[in-house]
Amino acid sequence: MKQSAQRGMSLIELMIGLVISLLIIGVVAAVFVNANRNFAQDQRVGRMQENARYAMHIIAQDLSMIGFWGPLMDTSSINAQTRNCTTSPDISDPSKCAGFFANSILEMASGDDCGPGTSATAPANWAYDIDRFVEIVTESTAANAETSFDCIDEDEFFPDTDILVIKRLHGLPLDAARADSNDDGKIYLRTNGDAGMIMQYDSSAAVPLNTEDWQYLIHLYYIQDYFLADGDAIPTLYRKTLSGNAMDIEVGGVAQGIEHVHVMFGVDAGTDGIPDYYTSSPTVVEERAAVTAKVYVLARSLEADQLYTNAKSYQLGDVTKDFSGSPDNFYRRVFTTTVQLRNRVHFNRIAS
Hints:
Layout: H1 11-63, E1 78-79, E2 134-140, H2 142-148, E3 161-173, E4 187-191, E5 196-200, E6 212-224, E7 236-243, E8 246-249, E9 255-256, E10 258-267, E11 277-279, H3 284-288, E12 290-300, E13 313-316, E14 319-322, E15 332-340
Parallel strand pairs: 1-5
Antiparallel strand pairs: 2-3, 3-6, 4-5, 4-6, 6-7, 7-8, 7-9, 10-11, 10-12, 12-15, 13-14
């Protein structure tokens, strides 16, 4: 019986098999690399979006409360004296040191006012200047930022960004039944609905009848050029807040990767409640006639992608951020929202 000859794989067949195998491996590797890169990109963009939306939410929520002074209908009645009326009465208006306002004293801790630097012309004790319940410095240089608000370190300020200050009351009055010494030293507005006095709270002092105490808040938003350590190059939205009688920074900031925050106010020049124009530098009168605010946030990815080049231009209302002259490897997006300003009953319109 004759046996058939056994044949192995020829050299050509082996080479074809190897080529096919290498092609398959290459395709799988390319798919894996692309999937891994897309995953990393999605992570960067997703985290950037999360930070931007949180920053936008915090600022929008704060802006929606501007003009809120509790039951007080006329802010011109607020007494914010910076001296003890029993020893230094206000001769120009004796009524502000009598009756409801008697013995009013209010001072910021030394060096902690955070208000305009010595080279600026502005009222003393900036924190209690309630004529401006919103203050904005647009596209400030680092040096100008420290001049505008001396608690901002120019060496840490992210240049050509805005500074936003909001002054308002907490949403709820202090419950007298729960008030204790933990509230001492905090700044409150005491009001009977007709008049008001900003003061440092003292739980041991008698509270006049038919009055309420509302905590006075100041939030100062600005962009710092690092997150936790100087040199980490992660621009971060920070907020200083009134704590007792000093402006303290909130550790860790509000959100990382925020390169710019810009606000434009919609001003109602008439009486229909509809904005007639928008401005990012409102006057005192325009602040009181604002019915909406547009918040723009320019966010950046925390890590660079060396396979991506960003030379784009971004529009934030009336501000343009152009990277065509200095492209880098970061992803960016502009996020925006419009806030309705509801607390306008206390203020006069432009038309009035």
